[in-house]
Structures are given as C-alpha cells and as structure tokens.
Design a protein that fits this description.
The chain is an alpha/beta fold and about 250 residues long. It has 10 helices and 12 strands.
Length: about 250
C-alpha cells in the first residue's frame, strides 16, 4: 500500500505566511522559515510554498526566500507562483526547490506543462488546479481564484497528465479555509480518472477530514495550512490517528 502524505502549505504574500478563507480575508500566520523548520521537525512528508500574489502582481516567485527555506529543510519542497517559463523553473531549482507548481500559466499555455516535463522530468511538475462549483459543475479558476474559466476540472486534469504533469494539486476554492472538510466527491472523481497522484487541498478542519479524503476521496496526499500554522492539529498526532485508522503513513 502506498504511503499517504501529509503536506503543510506556506501561502506567501510580501515575504510572510498568510492564510485566508475562500482565497480572501488574509491574515498573518507566521515567519515562513520558522514554520518550515517546525514542519520538518514535526514529521511533514513534504512542504509546499505558494507565492499567492505572484501571478496577479506579475512578478517572480521570491527565489531568495525559497533559498533560505531550502537551507533548513530536508523534505521535498514544491514552489509555485508566477512561473511562466523553463527559465523561471531553473532559477527555483537552483535555489533549492525540488518540484514546481504551475497554475495560471499552464491554463494560458498548456504547452508549458510538456516543455517543463521534457526539461526537468514529470516528477518535477505539479499542476495546481484551483476549482469552484458552478451550478453543479466543477470548473477551473485562475489568478488566485479571481478568474473563472470554462475548463472542466476532471478534463483538465486528464489533459495535464497526458502533457506530462507528475502530480495534481487540487484545491476547492469553495472549501478553502472553511475547515468543513475537503471536496470529497470531485477529489474521488479526479483521483479515479488519472494515474498520477492527487494532492487534496482546501477545507481540512479535523483529523477525520484527512481520513475521509484518503479513504473515500482516494487522494494520495492531503495539504493544509491554517490548522497546522496555528497548532490546531499537530502533524505527529494526525499521523498517529491515521495509522490507527489503518491508513499507511510515514512516521
């Protein structure tokens, strides 16, 4: 049985960790380097760093901050935000990222997925898919949730796999920051439609939510932010709980 992964996420704005609800109402959540070190010590399997306003502000991800974080951690490190080219990825990998996450740029130019996969390998390419439910249909949104598209979530995930994406980071904008649970049904639908790993994101509030997204939602990994940042759930305790539920995790 493949081990399920627990992944804290650092949403970065102006060099600081922030967290909001439904992608808005951001509040300060701590120093990103200190949080990264803490998660490494607590047993996180990976770490994700998203410069959440990089695309909107039309600027590059904070490569300097990426380098500072990478210096202190020894777990896989995924970085996203404002990535538009092979050159952008090269800079991030040189500064310590192990994988990169693309979203808006890939929707605008799907060829970018293939270009990055060929240049760095599929294992390096994580496609972030932000979704929102429009009258019962899950569609992709871009620019930090500000711009709706006509892309159907499941079809976009399948196309991305065909282009060479190595993982899907699936975030429900409707569930983000609500602590009401992950979007289980669409997570299950996409997980069952593709063969690459799906990281579920958006809505974690209890340990049971993680159990549900692994068992019912068939997710390969689960990502959360505020519940870890503010110590509402400790990663070690979460893994102990999941193990008791017969869910395979690394401890």
């Amino acid at each position: 049985m493949l081990t399920k992964r627990i992944i804290p996420c650092l949403d970065i704005k102006d060099g600081q960790t922030v967290k909001g609800t439904n992608f808005v109402n951001l509040r300060h959540a701590g120093d990103p380097v200190e949080l990264a070190v803490r998660y490494c010590e607590e047993g996180a399997d990976e770490l994700v760093f998203l410069d959440i306003t990089a695309t909107v502000d039309k600027r590059k991800t904070l490569a300097e901050l990426v380098r500072r974080i990478a210096t202190y951690i020894n777990i896989p490190f995924t970085v996203g935000g404002g990535i538009n080219s092979v050159e952008d990825v090269s800079v991030l990998l040189e500064n310590g990222a192990d994988k990169i996450s693309i979203n808006t740029a890939a929707v605008r130019n799907p060829q970018l997925i293939e270009d990055l996969a060929k240049s760095f390998g599929s294992q390096c390419v994580v496609l972030a898919v932000d979704i929102k439910n429009f009258e019962g249909i899950w569609k992709v949104v871009t620019h930090g949730g500000r711009t709706p598209t006509e892309l159907i979530a499941t079809e976009w995930a399948k196309k991305a796999e065909g282009l060479g994406a190595g993982e899907i980071l699936l975030t429900s904008m409707d569930h983000d920051g609500t602590k009401s649970g992950f979007a289980i049904e669409i997570t299950k639908e996409i997980s069952n439609s593709i063969s690459i790993p799906v990281i579920a994101s958006g809505g974690a509030g209890t340990m049971e939510h993680f159990s549900e997204v692994f068992t019912i939602g068939h997710a390969d990994a689960a990502l959360a932010a505020s519940i870890f940042h503010f110590r509402e759930i400790e990663i070690g305790e979460l893994k102990t709980y999941l193990k008791e539920q017969n869910i395979s995790v690394r401890v």
